[in-house]
Amino acid sequence: MHLSWLQPGAPFPDASQAWDEAQPAPGLLAAGGALDVDTLRRAYSAGIFPWFSEGQPILWWSTDPRMVLFPQEFKLHRSLRKTLARFAADPRCRVSFDTAFDEVIRACAGTPRNGQSGTWIVPAMVDAYRQLHRAGLAHSVETWIDGRLAGGLYCVAIGRAVFGESMFAHLPDASKIALAALVAFCRREDVRMIDCQQNTRHLASLGAREIARAAFVQQVANATGESPLPWRFEPVYWNAILPPPAPA
């Protein structure tokens, strides 16, 4: 059962070489390498992402199938629609991009993934994505209520390929509001797909679904070659997902 060991700067194996369902860690592609900006940029551009725990080497994954959210398929359930409408109309509430990246990733690092104990966002990952943010390739979406950071998410973006990473909420629905803002932004900017990496019931309830890895990698290759996105959020962007108010 061979697993490629990467030296820093070495090219990644093709994503199609990741372990399949017959092996103990389906989707595992390689170990080793580094978490510098260039390596992360090359990984994401090839449909590969890092995921490992404290005490493990860097592990690189490319799952098949891949969980993605097409912005036009986002399910805005009635309760969330009402929450968003109240949020958008309340002057004490706002969404911003890239104003508190360090706070967001630290909060995400304290949130267990998929019901696991502990965190997968180890200190080396925090440092790596902070560097990626400074390079303009990682972004945060922040939900503010009464001047306090209530929730948010961070993602990677290369060209018009957007890769969701992690969310957190200090108040109910604050992370869902951040995700809805990202969806609204992506609809406005004609982003065709948001990578969700792994299948979870929560993401599926919001409209995410699985596609074949080969199709995912092809879409990523197309999108990463496009012009970068203008990472800002304006209140008018809510119109991309909220229905217009009824006439008086």
Do you know the CATH architecture of the largest domain?
A: 3-Layer(aba) Sandwich
How many distinct helices?
A: 7
Adjacency order of strands in the biggest sheet = 6-7-8-9-10-5-11
Structural domains: how many: 2
SSE order, one letter for each helix or strand:
EEHEEEHEHHEEEHEHEH
Shape: globular
Largest β-sheet summary = 7 strands, mixed
Characterise this structure.
This protein has 248 residues and is of the alpha+beta class. It has helices at residues 37-45, 78-89, 101-109, 123-134, 174-188, 201-205, 213-224; strands at residues 4-6, 28-32, 49-50, 59-61, 66-69, 93-97, 138-145, 148-158, 161-169, 194-197, 209-211. The protein is globular, with a radius of gyration of 18 Å.
Structure summary:
With 248 residues, the chain is of the alpha+beta class.
How would you describe this structure in keywords?
2 domains, 248 residues, Aminopeptidase, Alpha-Beta Plaits, 23% strand
